[in-house]
Amino acid sequence: MEVLDNKCPACGAKITFNPKNQMWDCEYCGSKFTLEEMQKHNNASSKQENTKTDTIEKKYKKIDNLDVYRCKNCGAEVMADEQTTSTFCVYCGSTAILKDKITEGIAPTKIIPFKKVKEDAEIAFKGLSKGKPLMPKFFNKKENIEKIRGVYIPFWTYDLKVSGNIDFNAIDIKTWSDYNYSYTKTDEYLVKRKGDMKFNKILVDASSRFDDDLMDSIEPFSFNDLVEYNHAYLSGFLAEKYDVDLSTASKRATSRAMTTAIDIAKESVLHQTKTVVSNNLNISKISDDYILLPVWMVNINYKDKNYTFAMNGQTGKLVGNIPIDVKRTIIISLIIFIISTLIVFAIVWVV
Q1: What's the domain range around 136?
Q2: For the chain: N or C, fewer Cβ within 10 A?
Q3: Is 188 domain-assigned?
């Protein structure tokens, strides 16, 4: 992977990827280019060099000479094309950013390009305050909204097969009564399930800087939009460098597959209560992949605590934890109390 000079082939100005038309737009001369046209002008990589071995393990291409922004405060490493600049860290908000070259690691094989533009993310973020009177006004400040950035987040994907058998203890309870007595009938069963399940593209966040629950929450992604990775898609965006290796991430993928397999088997047991009594399920890996997924994100520091908000750059789903403004809560509670007290006094006085 060489550092690409993503400039407009027509005028040489900065060119960026436009999620709306899925083309590369030049804001200076108005030219628009497809991926094929970008490749023709050597402004995009031309082919995918990843191969498969007989054991279905992928050989990932190594990164060579890619621009990266390193945060001196939190240590984050974010990749970018030559034309993209960063003045602050998207994770901690620090301005202590150093531009450097990265010469280690592996390149992703596929990517889902952004579908949602920055304006979509800004509108969604502003909409968080609707119906939330206790949300601190600080979060809607202009400088916070302006920090929203598009970042490609690294993910490992796994195709797994779960096979074996699982036994459940199932119970049905029936009650009835007559004029003299109440009756309870308890039927207990041993229910066996056996079979195979295949799971395709189980996602595991490959960045330790993101909370796994947060990344799980912005799912699902539609893999119909998954295309071969190309450097040009980074134009105008940032890309997080993975720091969770393949073997470590596989443990979480295995856990997700096992939990889902048990839940599916449990749903097939048509009794009132069911409990797993024995589990002889085995998981085998069919294949793995390293991909980049689009996320609009903003990290806001409020009272010495960071709050991360993330929006799925493909579907527009927004997630994040919203704190409560204690001062506003007290004021609103007092107002409600005073109004309620006045209403009660008014009713009593009229009566």
Answers
A1: 15-320
A2: C
A3: yes
